[in-house]
Write a structure and sequence with these properties.
Elements lengths: L6 H5 L5 E5 L6 E10 L10 E10 L8 E7 L3 E13 L2 E11 L4
Antiparallel strand pairs: 1-2, 1-4, 2-3, 3-6, 4-5, 5-6
Length: 105
């Protein structure tokens, strides 16, 4: 069972590798580089979870903006929508944005 996709959970895994499954037989490694939380805004609904996660990936293959299956040693397997946001000398930077109501426990 995959871990909950929360800011706190991703923060535990900064600087670790996630494998992306594509049509290729060989998974692609992405390194979780940063987790950035967003403060609540004035008049915003209570109980919102809003954050972004950033990955560094290789030059090749380039990952188009779409939903991918990611796998992590501790977090398990889950689907995530990745957006390429920057080209770097050593590869590409990708972002996934989360914005949802926290479940009441």
């Amino acid at each position: 069972m995959p871990a909950e996709l929360t800011e706190a959970e991703f923060s535990k895994h900064v600087n670790t590798k996630f494998q992306v499954r594509t049509d290729s037989e060989t998974p692609i490694d992405l390194e979780l580089d940063e987790v950035k939380g967003y403060s609540s805004r004035y008049k915003e609904h209570d109980g919102m979870e809003r954050f972004s996660i950033f990955f560094n990936g290789p030059k090749q293959p380039f990952l188009e903006q779409t939903t991918y299956t990611l796998e992590h040693e501790q977090m398990g397997e889950f689907e995530i929508f990745l957006v390429p946001i920057a080209r770097r000398d050593d590869g590409f930077r990708y972002e996934a944005v989360f914005n949802y109501f926290k479940s009441a426990v």
